[in-house]
């Protein structure tokens, strides 16, 4: 591309003046043409990206694994000046869980075109959602210039759009769980629970009270043991617990098992959906760290109609990194567990500390069910814990639905103009 530099412009300006002084029409014409071309090009370039609007649109911002999402890139020229050339470079994600990785891997999609005055152009892309996570789109760059190609004006579009891919959910029978009372609920009339979100007052300690209910600040003020009271409710509470420890410590030096972690997330999401459909108050706890706070992900139990969306969003970003073991996380969060709640733990590894924690939680009145996703049968004895081996069922589902396996998004992104 030829570029008219300032030295060239001064040179042809001098020819124009020289032609006027010497009466040489050819020099006057040559100098005038070049100077006029430069002025038109400069002005056109200055207006090139004025009132040019760029944005993306999505058929949906939330989808499940196995679904497809339409992503459209739009550019609109909202002025009377046409653009002979326009280059749009947008960045799409390539890997899953971009917020959980230290290094983002992205790839660029380019669109080159011309655009008339007051014209709107769009390009569509179909993305197959093969891996859960949060995907970020952007930033982008829009580039244009004058009709002669002497000048170029780039503009960065810093806006970031996010797409959340939820984990897949399956019916409980597909996990090998009985559709009726899969977690050992007691037959009979409605059972009353206390909702820890609704504090109603204090009373004096009684021998049958759990030590976790003691309010030590109130006890210090009044000089006698005080326990917290909560609003009773007939809605049963279920806490879904997810351990991201997929390998024993002696094996973990080599990393973690992605298939086992994905199977565990599918099982946790499926149980959560079933429980909400059966009018449970459902919460979620994992020792996997949040990509934002770097702390364990905790969602309080609720029966709100939007609770499933909240739970699935939390499970969508669960990764293999953790600050504390599942046993230590349960100890840290035990005082927040609803009294008498059913605990459903999804795990591929159970340590001695976690087994001891089960015994303590049972002493607090919790029923515990373990959904085992390990590759080999569970060898450890867990007295009082209901155990379901769901790993084999999930492995068969994975063979039937290959999109359960992590696949880079770049391999399945298709563009169409």
Summary, kept brief:
By secondary structure, the chain is α/β, with parallel strands linked by helices.
What does this structure look like?
- The chain has helices at 6-22, 25-48, 216-222, 249-252, 258-277, 307-316, 326-333, 352-363, 391-400; strands at residues 52-58, 62-64, 68-77, 83-93, 106-115, 120-128, 133-137, 140-145, 152-157, 161-166, 193-204, 226-233, 237-242, 281-289, 296-302, 342-347, 367-372, 386-389, 414-416.
- It has 417 residues and is of the alpha/beta class.
- It folds into 3 domains: 6-48, no CATH class; 52-167 and 411-416, Sandwich (Immunoglobulin-like), CATH 2.60.40.10; 172-191 and 234-400, Rossmann fold, CATH 3.40.50.
- Helix 5 (258-277) packs antiparallel against helix 6.
- The model is unreliable at 95-104, 186-192 and 403-417 (pLDDT under 50).
Number of discrete domains = 3
Please identify the top-level CATH class of the largest domain. Alpha Beta
What order do the helices and strands follow? HHEEEEEEEEEEEHEEHHEEHHEHEEHE
Largest sheet: 6 strands, mixed
CA radius of gyration is 32 Å
The helix/strand class is: alpha/beta
Shape: elongated
Alpha plus pi helix count: 9
Q: What is the β-strand count? A: 19
Mean pLDDT: 80
Q: What is the correct CATH architecture of the largest domain?
A: 3-Layer(aba) Sandwich
Strand order in space, largest sheet: 15-14-13-16-17-18
Uncertain runs are 95-104, 186-192, 403-417
């Amino acid at each position: 591309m030829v570029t008219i530099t300032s030295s060239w412009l001064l040179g042809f300006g001098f020819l124009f003046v020289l032609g006027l002084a010497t009466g040489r029409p050819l020099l006057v014409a040559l100098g005038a043409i070049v100077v006029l071309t430069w002025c038109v090009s400069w002005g056109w370039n200055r207006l090139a990206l004025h009132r040019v609007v760029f944005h993306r649109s999505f058929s949906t911002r939330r989808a499940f694994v196995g679904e497809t999402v339409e992503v459209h890139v739009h550019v609109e020229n909202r002025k009377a000046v046409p653009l002979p050339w326009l280059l749009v470079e947008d960045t799409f994600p390539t890997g899953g869980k971009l917020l959980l990785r230290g290094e983002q891997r992205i790839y660029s999609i380019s669109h080159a075109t011309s655009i008339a005055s007051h014209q709107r152009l769009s390009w569509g892309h179909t993305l197959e959602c093969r891996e859960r996570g949060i995907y970020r789109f952007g930033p982008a760059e829009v580039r244009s210039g004058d009709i002669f190609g002497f000048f170029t004006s780039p503009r960065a579009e810093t806006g970031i759009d996010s797409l959340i891919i939820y984990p897949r959910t399956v019916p409980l029978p597909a996990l090998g769980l009985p559709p009726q009372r899969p977690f050992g609920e007691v037959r009979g009339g409605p059972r009353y629970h206390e909702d820890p979100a609704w504090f109603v007052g204090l009373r004096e300690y009684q021998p049958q009270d759990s030590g976790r209910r003691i309010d030590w600040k109130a006890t210090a003020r009044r000089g006698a043991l005080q326990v917290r009271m909560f609003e009773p409710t007939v809605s049963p509470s279920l806490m879904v617990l997810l351990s991201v420890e997929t390998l024993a410590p002696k094996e973990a030096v080599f990393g973690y098992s992605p298939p086992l972690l994905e199977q565990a997330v599918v099982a946790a999401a499926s149980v959560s959906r079933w429980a909400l459909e059966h009018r449970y108050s459902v919460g979620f706890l994992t020792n996997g760290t949040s990509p934002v706070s770097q702390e364990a992900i905790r969602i309080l139990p609720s029966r709100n109609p939007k609770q499933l969306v909240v739970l699935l969003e939390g499970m969508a970003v669960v990764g293999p990194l953790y600050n504390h073991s599942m046993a230590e996380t349960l100890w840290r969060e035990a005082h927040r567990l609803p009294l008498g709640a059913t605990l459903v733990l999804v795990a591929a590894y159970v340590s001695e500390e976690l087994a001891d924690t089960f015994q303590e939680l049972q002493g607090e009145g919790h029923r515990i069910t373990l959904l085992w996703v390990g590759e080999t049968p569970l060898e450890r004895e867990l007295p009082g814990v209901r155990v379901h081996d769901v790993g084999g069922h999930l492995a068969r589902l994975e063979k039937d639905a290959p999109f359960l396996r992590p696949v880079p998004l770049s391999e399945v992104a298709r563009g169409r103009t």
